Amino acid sequence: MNRRILLAAGLIGASALVITGCGSSSSTADTSGGGSSSPAGAATGSGASFPAPAYTQWCQESQTCSYASKGSGAGIKDLTTGVVAWAGSDAPLTSDETAAVKGTVLYFPTLLGAVTIPTNIEGVSKPINLTGPALAGIFDGEITTWNDKDIATSNPGVTLPAKPIAVCVRADSSGTSYNFSGYLSQISESFADKVGAEGSKTPAWTAKVSASPGNSGVSNCVKNGSNSIGYVDLADATQAGLDGQAAAIGVEGAYVAPTTASIDAAGDDAQLNPDLTVSTSLSNSQTKGAYPIVATTYALVVEGGTDNAAVKKALTYFLGDKAQGQLAGLGYAPLPSSMLSKATAQLSKLG
User: Fold this and answer.
1) What's the first-to-final CA gap in the chain, in angstroms?
2) Most buried in the list 144, 204, 276, 348, measured by CB within 10 Å?
C-alpha cells in the first residue's frame, strides 16, 4: 500500500472515459463530446470533476447512468433546476443552495480522494516537502518566491530558485477548492483572516493567481507554467504526468505523500454528520501516516424525485463491491466500512 498509486496504463484508460467540458459554467448537462451515451432509462448526472474518472467509468460499466464533469457548483445548479436526476459535489450545499432546491437533498458519500499539490519548479525534479502553514502562505500571498525560508527549511539539500511562485487555482465553483481552502483555514490563522475561516467553492484568494476551469485546467496550468503550484485530485495530477511532482505535506519528520495507504489512514477516523456529510476530521487528520488533505465526494439526490428509481440503481452499483474495489486503480480509496454501510442503508429512501 505504501506506493505511488495509479499505473499509467490504467489512467490512460480512465482518462478516455472522462466527459469533456470539465469545469464548464453551463447549467445544462452536456453528455456529448467524448462522454458515455445515455442508455434508455439511465439516471443523468453532472457536477464535480474530482470524482469524474470513477463516476464516468461506473456509469459506462453499469449502463445505469451518465455523468457530465463541470464542477460542483454547476452540478448543484443542474440539480436545482431539474436538468439532472443527481449531482456530484465535493462540498455540502450552502444555505442558499439548500433553500433553492425543491425538496430534501440526500447526501451519498461515494469515495475518498486526495487533493494533491503538484509543482513545476525550475531545477527541481523530485517532490518537495511543504508544511501546512507554508502552503497556506503561498495561497494567501505571504510567500511569493520558491527560495523563501519557510520552504527551504523543509527541503534541505534542494536548490530552490529565487523565482516568483506562479499560483494556479480553479476558475469555477469547485468542491476541490472548498476542501483545499478548508484545510488551509484550519492550518493557518493568517489564511483564515485573509481568505476565509471556512472552506469555499469560490475562495477570494489574496495571492496573485492564474485561474483555470476544472481540475484538468489547473493541472495544465501547473504543467505548462514555469515555477508553478496548484491543487488537483490525484487522478488528474497523474493523468497530466504530475504525480511525481506532488508535494508531501506535513511537519518536519512527518511529511506525507498522497498514496492509497495515506488516504485510507485519513478515512479511518472520519465522522459522519446525521445527513451523512463528513465532519472536518477528514481534513488535517491527526492519524499517523494520514495524508492531510483528503476529501469525500457526494452524489446528491432530491428525495421523492421522479427519476429516483434509476438513481437508486446507479448508486447501488457505485457503492457495491466491484465499483469500490476499482478505486485504488483510479486514484482514490474506497469508503471506510462504517461510512459505506450508512450510505448503502440510505438507498432505501430512494424508493
Assistant:
1) 38
2) 276
Cα 78 from chain centroid (whole Å): 19
Any residues with CB less than 8 A from the CB of 322 and at least 6 apart, and which? Answer: none
Q: Judge contact between 306 and 103, C-beta under 8 A.
A: no
Residue pair 116/232 in contact (Cβ under 8 Å)? The answer is yes
**Whole-number Cα distances in Å, 229 to 57, 186, 225:** 29, 20, 9
Mean pLDDT of 157-185: 96
Please give the grid coordinates belonging to residue 249: 505535506
Phi, psi of 236, rounded to the nearest 5 degrees = -70, -35
Q: Please state, rounded to an integer, the average pLDDT across all residues of the chain.
A: 88
pLDDT at residue 37, rounded to an integer: 52
What is the reported pTM?
0.86
Name the grid cell of 336.
471506510
25: helix, strand or coil: coil
Q: Is the pLDDT of residue 18 over 50?
A: no
130 grid coordinates: 511543504
Cβ of 123: how many Cβ atoms within 10 Å? Answer: 11
- Mean pLDDT to the nearest integer, 211-217: 94
Whether residue 214 contacts residue 22, with contact meaning beta carbons closer than 8 Å, is answered with: yes
pLDDT tens per residue across span 199-208: 999 999 999 9
Locate all alpha helices (DSSP H) within 141-239, ordered by sequence: 149-152, 175-187, 189-194, 214-224, 234-239
Cβ–Cβ < 8 Å for 319, 108 = yes
3-state secondary structure of 77: helix
